[in-house]
């Protein structure tokens, strides 16, 4: 059955239940043989039922046409969304997240969080672990995405976490310093920094520094290789 035929059938059903339809003179094909019998005269339908039927009609058409939209996953860039942290800090957070994402599915679930807190030396109860996830679980899926993991450090730096909470323990024991360079964790530092350097130039400087470090490492590697070859030729001569 085509989507147009299905739409006509369901629309006639809706019109019939509203009591304002007339016999449809549109030529029918064999695909309409299974059309539901017309509603008996006098059947009353209130507004809620009509709305529900309309909603079902639209949903059924979407599924039939293959246009039903799946849940959208938000794609984000941690370097632009979490500008309060340096590139090094974000990379350290990413390494930590991946280290405890033992399932390699891009999430830290309850059991993985349990293992993480035990490794950090701050084990939590089952209820405590659930509360930790709930505090930053923006999509209510019961696990931590990478973005939600970064939110822990943002809130820690902003002083928004309770001192005795599991999330604060995670942030403190992670060995990732968010109090010296974190914008929200050290507003005075950020204000002084912002006057001298824009966020964009800060990241550009960090990228240049990374590139220079790679060049230095490559140069040292070549020098060691040349020295080894020279030493080797001395012994072979």
What is the structure about, briefly put?
This protein is mostly helical and 237 residues long. It has helices at 3-18, 47-65, 78-81, 87-100, 110-119, 126-136, 146-157, 166-173, 187-196, 199-236, and strands at residues 107-108, 144-145.
Unreliable stretches (pLDDT < 50, length at least 5) are 21-33, 37-45, 180-190, 192-197
Largest β sheet strand count, sense and barrel closure: 2 strands, antiparallel
Indicate the overall shape. elongated
Spatial gap, N to C terminus: 87 Å
Rg over alpha carbons:
31 Å
Nearest-integer average pLDDT = 76
Please give the order of strands in the largest beta sheet. 1-2
Number of strands: 2
Structural class: mainly alpha
Individual helix count: 10
Sheet-strand content, in percent, reads: under 5%
H/E topology pattern? HHHHEHHEHHHH
Helix content: 55-70%
């Amino acid at each position: 059955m085509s989507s147009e035929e299905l739409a006509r059938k369901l629309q006639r059903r809706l019109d019939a239940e509203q009591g304002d339809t007339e016999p449809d003179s549109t030529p029918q094909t064999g695909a309409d043989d299974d059309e539901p019998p017309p509603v008996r005269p006098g059947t009353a339908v209130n507004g809620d039922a009509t709305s529900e039927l309309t909603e079902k009609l639209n949903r059924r058409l979407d599924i039939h046409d293959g246009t039903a939209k799946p849940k959208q996953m938000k794609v984000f860039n941690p370097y632009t969304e979490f500008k309060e942290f340096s590139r090094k800090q974000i990379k350290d957070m990413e390494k930590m997240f991946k280290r405890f994402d033992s399932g390699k599915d891009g999430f830290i679930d309850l059991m993985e969080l349990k293992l993480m807190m035990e490794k950090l030396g701050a084990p939590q109860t089952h209820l405590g672990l659930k509360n930790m996830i709930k505090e930053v679980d923006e999509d209510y899926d019961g696990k931590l995405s990478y973005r939600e993991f970064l939110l822990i450090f943002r809130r820690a730096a902003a002083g928004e976490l309770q001192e005795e909470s599991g999330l604060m323990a995670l942030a403190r024991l992670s060995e990732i310093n968010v109090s010296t360079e974190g914008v929200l964790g050290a507003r005075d530092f950020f204000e002084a920094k912002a006057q001298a350097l824009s966020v964009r130039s800060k990241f550009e400087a960090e990228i240049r520094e990374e590139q220079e470090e790679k060049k230095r490492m490559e140069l040292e590697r070549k020098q060691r290789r040349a020295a080894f070859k020279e030493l080797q030729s001395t012994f072979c001569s």
